[in-house]
Amino acid sequence: MTDSSASSSASYAAAGVDTAAGDRAVELMKAAVGRTHGPEVLGGVGGFAGLFDVSFLKDFDRPLLATSTDGVGTKVAIAQALDKHDTIGQDLVGMVVDDIVVVGARPLFMTDYIACGKVVPERIAAIVAGIATACAETGTALVGGETAEHPGLLGPDDYDVAGAAVGAVEADAVLGADRVRDGDVVLAMASSGLHSNGFSLVRHILAARGIGFTDRSAEFGGVVGETLLEPTRLYTAPLLRVLQDPALTGAVHSLSHVTGGGIAANLARVLPVGSWVEIDRSTWSPTPVFRILSDLAGNTLESSEGTWNLGIGMFAVVAPDAADAVAAAITADGIPTWRAGTVSTAARDLTGFEQGAKGVDGGAVRLVGSYAG
């Protein structure tokens, strides 16, 4: 008589799925995940669903939940080429959790999903450790996740990552275009580099020039791939400190996370219809990696403004009388922040402006002038 359990297990292994490796990966990541758990998290690691106590929402007048989901795109190809997986998790948290704070919400918890061709426990643990470290930095509990082995669909060293997060905000504290007024100041916050957008273009440029991710380059300051893997800057904690500062109550009217679509389109999404902004390029110097890539492609920096962040990772639209204080607070928290433009509702010809994006009928934005050297 055949043991059906053993037969099923053997068949799964023959198909290329190693459940024991998955269990080892969970054991390796437990400590890192556990460090993101406060008393609100129930049940620990390994349950079918993560549990999070939201009793505190009873103290809200009208609690709203905010949710976001994303991945890190083809940046994972560089991590795989270098066999370096400890930074990609921060990229995931940046893409997901920093979208939560844009509406003024405090992130509560996050889950992740990793699809791979073969479970290598140490690799999976490194990815999740990066996610957990970034979750801890943003005050987000990592309450669950899934690692799925897809042999035959993905190569043994291939993987992709995605995640989703949930936050909470009082209804009357939600940030957005409806709060923006004529004369508001647009503050720009520095990015750490490419973040997690436009890597298909990056890979195309390097391939066309015959440059490999593992090559050493004086221009890139070392191994090319290591420069490109600079993790996404996290904005959540500094922004929440500003939003919760009694001296700055109501100062921030809207926020924009500069991700896919580039600079103008993302800012236009958080401005009201009928308003416009000219972002002054002379107020900042794009991060060196953008200049290097543009030179390799034989393009101008201006030609990639709809693809890369070019040194700006987040915008804040703030009341003019509080702009200097907000900029100083965020800069003191380790993120260089500066005035980049002013909102206007005056009538004008908007030819050449980016108007709204991603289905949002927003304001109009264009970049003017030349970049600082």
UniProtKB/TrEMBL annotation:
GO terms for cellular component: cytosol. Keywords: ATP-binding, Cytoplasm, Ligase, Nucleotide-binding, Purine biosynthesis. GO terms for biological process: 'de novo' IMP biosynthetic process; adenine biosynthetic process. SUPFAM superfamilies: PurM C-terminal domain-like, PurM N-terminal domain-like. It catalyses: 2-formamido-N(1)-(5-O-phospho-beta-D-ribosyl)acetamidine + ATP = 5-amino-1-(5-phospho-beta-D-ribosyl)imidazole + ADP + phosphate + H(+). Gene3D superfamilies: PurM-like C-terminal domain, PurM-like, N-terminal domain. GO terms for molecular function: ATP binding; phosphoribosylamine-glycine ligase activity; phosphoribosylformylglycinamidine cyclo-ligase activity. It is found in: Cytoplasm. Residues 65-169 form the PurM-like N-terminal domain. The keyword Chloroplast does not apply. It comes from the Bacteria. Pathway: Purine metabolism; IMP biosynthesis via de novo pathway; 5-amino-1-(5-phospho-D-ribosyl)imidazole from N(2)-formyl-N(1)-(5-phospho-D-ribosyl)glycinamide: step 2/2. It is an enzyme of class 6 (ligase). Residues 181-344 form the PurM-like C-terminal domain. Its EC number is 6.3.3.1. Belongs to the AIR synthase family. This is Phosphoribosylformylglycinamidine cyclo-ligase.
